[in-house]
Amino acid sequence: MSLSITQTALVFVGIPLLVVLTVYGAVYGTAARRVSKRYRPGRPFTFAPVWFLAGTDDTGAGRGNPAALDAREPAAALPPGPLLAQAADAPAIDHGSTGGASDRW
Amino acid sequence: MTVGENPTRSGRPDVLDGPFTTPQLLRMDEALRLADRSTGLTFSVYVGDLDEPSRESAEKLHSQLAAPAGSVLVAVSPNQRLLEIVTGALARRRIPDRSAKLAALSMAAAFSGGDLAGGIVAGLAQLAEYAGKS
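YS: structure for the whole thing
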């Protein structure tokens, strides 16, 4: 079986090239399109600030009484009003000494 | 600025566009609820930039909560790579500063590995454990 120069080039260059392109496309075509949202230390964190509070439903009300727990009306997802007692630009009120801790990483 | 608030026009809460996946958000919600229920204190988590000086900024956020004295605020600033735990006057009696520092250490260790949600969940569990039952 004799192969022409073109056929040899197609088999030994074309096919490997096709494989390389397929793998490259499979790896970077899918992953690069959606930007990774994961936080990585040292990289800028560009997301909007979020403040999490537990729901204000009285989850402890029916404690120790399963029947009352089942009979309870399902709580609304969140109360309509703001959960924070003060506006963000209000002056800080002294509520006694606060404690806690700080750390860096 | 809690979960579910400020929905965008499409009805999708902004928080879903943040760094947390839905399972992570659910885990954090569960951790907050369990901590609140078992201790009777109010735990909240802030993730975002803090103004300098960061301690005062975190304390100001804490004072905006409905009942600051019995509240614990965990403020995480991934950009500044710092973490502040603020306990109110009542909460401080339950969670001494030394215990808060221990929780902060373990949270910072998780954050330095890039695990924001895991660190927050573990830290909340630890703080709730220190505070004990209500």
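YS: worth flagging: The interface with chain B takes residues 37-41, 44-45, 47-55, 59-60, 77-78, 83-88, 90, 92-93, 95-105 of chain A (CB under 8 Å).
IM: good catch. Also The beta strands of chain A are 50-53, 99-104.
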